[in-house]
Each structure stands twice: as structure tokens, then as C-alpha cells.
Amino acid sequence: MTLHFPTVGMTAALVLAPLLSGAAAGQGVADLYRIQEAASQTHMEYHHVSLPKGKEMLLGDLKGPGKVTYWYITDDSGGKFYPGLVLKVFWDSRDSQDGRDGQAEPSIHVPLADFFGAVGGHTIDYQSAPMQIQHFCYMCCLPMPFSTSARFVLANDGDRDYSGSMAYAIDYEQGRQYAAEKSRLCCAWRRSNAVKNGLHTILDVTGRGHYVGNFLQVRTRFAGWWGEGDTIFRLDGKKITHTPGTEDEYGACWGFGNTYSYLYSGYLQNEKGQNRMYRWYVGNPVRFRESLKVQIQNQHTDGTPTTSDADDYTSVAFWYQEGPARGVALQPFAERTAPSKAGAGKP
Description:
CATH class: Mainly Beta
CATH architecture: Sandwich
Strand content: over 45%
Helix content: under 10%
CATH topology: Jelly Rolls
Radius of gyration: 20 Å
Low-confidence stretches: 1-25, 95-101
Shape: globular
CATH superfamily: Protein of unknown function DUF2961
Distance between the termini: 22 Å
Number of helices: 4
Structural class: mainly beta
Number of strands: 24
Number of domains: 1
């Protein structure tokens, strides 16, 4: 496998900043001189972590009102994060009258590595606008506003204890303007092993908000073209076909060809039936008032839903909604790490 990635250094980052103003960056280059009504803070730790199976630990408990602007994490696994490590993020969990967590369920509840696109703990370097991995440094620039608190929790729901050297930092800013902000970042992980009825669900949410992107891993044993599936939005009850094929949705046309890593889309892996890709809707977030369901078809060369030759799909979806998410359940460790049931088929 040969990967090629464009080099995005400091110069390119400055070029990107205007594009990301109001999205993944605090402000554009043209506005860097403006003094903001906020004070920057950082929560940083570097030490050995021992986390027994079934236990969890607090990564950071940030006081608001504020907004997370950037955070990174790494450990000494050499790019093989233990898949039993799970990230939980609770927004405004001190709002309850009894002093306990006002938010019983996390708005972000996903495997730690998968949050950054290292699906299954397998790291591939890439650079996109909101998220990237560079030499085992896992970085997120998605803005995360909160009113009273932001609690980052690391859990171990795996089958063994975790032990390793870990470093991380969460950059955030505190300001009164965030007290009235209702938007909260949410994240959901789903695996269809294998896909049933020709459809993998990436997101299924009710409320008001907008969908901003996803990572997708497809494991296939099909000998021919596996990516004929359309992306379908069911937006406030209306069905919308967004693109006429998987490669179109993830930034390519007429098949993927070479691997690539760009600002808003990427195809990172083409190796022994393993395919990894991402898509960010930065300029065109998918806005919904009542509900949004995002599905992708599992279709092969003939354009019909797969049956006995169905593939294995894993996705991580990111969206903003008014208020913390509810019911973002994570599949158990055994299901997440089970051997692939992707079926074999002839082209």
C-alpha cells in the first residue's frame, strides 16, 4: 500500500484559517488582530495511566461558560491505541439541583482512537481541516461550546487492563458570551457487521441542529467495485439522495484510485479489503429542524442492495444540536471488535 498525503505546514494552515472562520478555527487570519472577549486556558497532563477494565478516569473538568478550541492526546502504543479505551464527554453536567450529574448520558461516547479517525485503534496519518493525526499525535479542532462545565472522561470497557504513558491537552477559552450558546457537539459510533437490508445507518437524531461529518471504514471481501452505495438523508421526514455513489460522497468520482487526504474529504486506506474515508460538511452543514437520519447504501457493481455478500461498515458521526445529546449508546466491546462477517461475492 502506498499512501500519499499533501504537506500542510504553517503556511497552509494560515491559508486555511479564513476558510474555517466560524467553523473549526477561532477566527481567520484577517481577524487575528481583534481582541476577543475571552480568556484562554489549557488543561494539560503527562503521566503514566493505569486503567483497569470496567473503570474510568477523569481527563479534564473544565469550568464555563466557555468553548473548547483544540485538544490532542497520545500514548506510547506506537499508533495502536487499545480499542477498549472509550471517550465520554458530558456537557453542563452540574445543572442538576441535587448536585449530581445533570447529564446522565454523554453527548460523545465513542472509542477514543475512532474519535480521531483511527478506527479500531489502527492509526493512519492524515490532515483534514477539523481533525488530523500526525506521528501518533491525535488532534481535534472542532469547536465545543459549553455553559457551565465540560467533563472529559476516559473509560475502559475492554477485556483487559490498560497501562501506558499518556499525554494530552485541552485548550479552551472562557467568556460570558458562551453562557447563552445552546449548540453542543455530539458524536456517535456505529458498526453493521455485516450490513443488513443494504443500508448502514451513520446517524439517527431528533431535535434541531446540523450534521458536520463522519469517518467511515468499510471491510469487504467482494472482488469487484464495492462502493456503488448512495448517501441518503432523511431530513425532517423528507428523503434526499445526496450523492450517487460512495466515492462521490467522500471526494472522488469514478472510483477512488489513489489514497488521498484533503481539507474536507479523504480516502486513507485501500489494503486487503480495508477502506477508510472521511467527509466534513464545513461549507455545507446538513441543517435539520426536527430530525435527521443519515444512511449509506451497501451496493456493489450492479447497483443493487447486497445480500449474502454484504460488507462490514463502521462509522463515526459528528453533529451539533441544541442541548446535550440523549441516548447515544455505544455498542459493547465484544461487538465492536468481533471478526468481520463481510461476505464474499463475485463481481
